[in-house]
Amino acid sequence: MNITVSAAGLERANNALRHIKGAFPKAVSLATNRTLEGLRTDAVSETKSRYFVKAGDVRKTLTLKKANAANMAGVMLSRGARRNLAEYKLTPATPRAGRRTALKGAVKRDGLKSLGNAFLVRRGGKYRPYVRTSSGRWGIESLISPAIPQIIKNEESVKVMEQKAAERFEKRLSHETLRLLGALP
């Protein structure tokens, strides 16, 4: 994701801070860092609103590389492995005694879908969905879902995050320019 900012806003800040040594890179890096923090918040909220995922799980995958006066670019990275479907939405989450009910699951908040012949197996203290791949005791395979970095890259979410980040950067650059000029406390 790349955030585009208007050249007019950068030029205004540069002209205003021209007489203060090192002020323009400092203002840009401070605005970039505040934008990155807001972008992380937006990524968590957008992902949580579209998928069955906990905010803390999304936040754990995100790391920020902040900008400074020497390098005014900031980076937000998301890293994580694929997850089991049980970590998103699964119903029933535990087996029902005496009756076999069909498993349903979902990653996206657009409704639960039937998982066919899936069944629950307790491994590692948790029930997880499996499907049979071959005969025999060990002929089962876990149902794996996408990783959090994959779902953060949803096209609609990215558009919203880019727009909010561009607006936030413009606003923060103006604020930091005024603060460095001494107009704000």
What is the compact description of this entry?
Helices cover 42% and strands 19% of the residues.
Overview of this protein structure:
The structure is a single chain. With 185 residues, the protein is an alpha+beta fold. The protein is built from five helices and ten strands; from the N terminus they run αααββββββββββαα. The strands form four sheets. Strands 4-5-6 form a three-stranded antiparallel sheet, with no helix packed on it. The chain has a three-stranded antiparallel sheet with strand order 7-8-9, with no helix packed on it. A hairpin with a 6-residue loop joins strand 5 and strand 6. Helix 1 runs parallel beside helix 5, helix 2 packs across helix 3 and helix 2 packs antiparallel against helix 5. The chain is elongated, with a radius of gyration of 23 Å. The mean pLDDT is 91.
Structural class call reads alpha+beta
Summarize model confidence as the mean pLDDT: 91
Secondary-structure element order, N to C: HHHEEEEEEEEEEHH
How does the overall form come out from the CA principal axes?
A: elongated
Q: Low-confidence stretches at least 5 residues in length (pLDDT < 50)? A: none
List keywords for this structure.
185 residues; alpha+beta; 3-stranded antiparallel sheet; 5 helices; 42% helix; elongated
Ordered list of secondary-structure elements with their pairings:
Elements: H1 7-16, H2 23-50, H3 55-61, E1 62-65, E2 75-78, E3 83-84, E4 89-91, E5 104-106, E6 113-114, E7 119-123, E8 126-132, E9 140-142, E10 144-145, H4 148-152, H5 155-181
Antiparallel strand pairs: 1-2, 3-10, 4-5, 5-6, 7-8, 8-9
Helix pairs in contact: 1-5, 2-3, 2-5
